[in-house]
Amino acid sequence: MAEKLHPKIDHGLPKESASFSGGTLVCLCTSKPVKVKIKGQIAHNHACGCTKCWKPDGAIFSVVAVTPHENVTVTENGDKLKVVDPSALILRHACTQCGVHMYGPVERDHAFKGLDFIHPERFEEDGWSPPGFAAFVSSVIESGVDPGRMAGIRAQLKAAGLEPYDCLNPVLMDVLATFAAKKSGALPA
Amino acid sequence: MAEKLHPKIDHGLPKESASFSGGTLVCLCTSKPVKVKIKGQIAHNHACGCTKCWKPDGAIFSVVAVTPHENVTVTENGDKLKVVDPSALILRHACTQCGVHMYGPVERDHAFKGLDFIHPERFEEDGWSPPGFAAFVSSVIESGVDPGRMAGIRAQLKAAGLEPYDCLNPVLMDVLATFAAKKSGALPA
Predict the structure, then answer these.
(1) I need a labelling partner for B138 at 20 to 30 A (CA). Which of A156, B49, B60, B79 fits?
(2) Gap between the terminal Cα atoms of chain A
């Protein structure tokens, strides 16, 4: 039986539009939804298996991307937002009513500082850049997925065009290591 | 130019022998070398790019495998051994004279508890199981490798038959996640 990875993955990846210039993320509330305006196209969109990212009901993976913090503006009902875990690297701002994570800035000294993590499936508009890989795949076990399902899950991700990684992809892992190397002095700053 | 990954990788992987039943690890000291007897074949042998594993001179990667702790016996000059970092998960016992890590037990509550990490290139005998993948590849940047060399390094690992991962391989990452899931209660213990 096919696994329910994520609604935006299981029926073919969404199509990117060259004319997409941003849009509005909306939470799941039917009354007074939180709205967050995002300027420009998103980057590094990917499926994520970690236990912290917000996932729609029944999905094994989240779909999450980044955008520079200055491109993010809360436009409606921001009073419903609260940071899920103030000690986490990503300060996930969730709607306290429906639970959707609307944006998650990285403010700490880190390679990803200045970027906000968002869930593009909450865009009212189409045309955002589709996920390009799957990160933290083994971590879905920590959400209760039986290890015996992992071979099928990895195969299904690959078939969907998403190379599975148990951390981030090589591009981003190299970015993290380069940041660490510059900080330690192993590479010139 | 080809990268110097490791002497046991750059000239073709060593050949496993079905009759290998263990051997003796010897450090680099010409006088009073530390000797450690290992019973049986090693497991999960791999190239490792992390900054903590011992590497021979000029190598970008270490080659490291595991064996159950009960298969490890220090037979000569054990007084020269000292734990490199008592706070690390792997208690790397290094020769204080030549620096070679002779064995590294995991004693903490962890998926790898009861296993010792060893460097099979220090076996006096041939026939040990060759490396099967490359772990923590992006981490070599933290040792000062220019990020611009990473595409070449990953291609060279693949060509040598070692699939590159920026963490451990999927089998071991699933083992780690399963351990975490059983501990948290996400999976039955």
Answers:
(1) A156
(2) 50
| Structure tokens belonging to residue B89 | 């998960």
Residue showing tokens 């709205």: A35
Distance from C-alpha of A28 to C-alpha of A35, rounded to nearest angstrom = 10
A92, A97, A90: which is closest to A33 by C-alpha?
A: A97
Number of residues in chain B: 189
Amino acid identity of residue B36, one-letter, is V
Q: Which residues of A touch B163 (CB under 8 A)?
A: none
Q: Tell me which residue in B140, B166, B186 faces A143 most closely, judged by beta carbons.
A: B186
- As for the ipTM of the complex, it is 0.94
pLDDT classification of A1: cutoffs 50, 70, 90: low
Residues of B with a known catalytic role: 48, 50, 53
Beta strands in B6-122 (DSSP E): 22-26, 35-39, 43-48, 62-68, 72-76, 81-83, 93-95, 101-105, 115-118
Q: For residue B149, what is the nearest residue in chain A, using CA coordinates?
A: A174
Q: Could you report the per-residue pLDDT of A144-184, keeping only the tens digit for each?
A: 999 999 999 999 999 999 999 999 999 999 999 999 999 99
In the predicted model, is pLDDT for residue B1 greater than 80?
no
| pLDDT one-digit tens code per residue, A88-122 | 999 999 999 999 999 999 999 999 999 999 999 99
Q: Which of B51, B54, B59 is nearest to B11 (CA)?
A: B59
Q: What letter does residue A145 receive in the DSSP assignment?
A: -
Domains annotated for chain A, with CATH where assigned, are 7-184 (3.90.1590.10)
The strand pairing partners of A188, in sequence order, are none
A44 Rama class: left (phi>0) / alpha (psi -120 to 50) / beta: left
Which among B68, B3, B79, B84 is positioned nearest to B35, based on CA atoms? B79
Q: How far is B26 from chain A (nearest CA, A)?
A: 30
CA dihedral A140, A146, A150, A153 (to 10 degrees): -70
Positive or negative, the CA dihedral B14, B20, B26, B31 is negative
What are residue B61's phi and psi, to 5 degrees? -115, 155
Q: Which of A27, A29, A50, A167 is catalytic?
A: A50
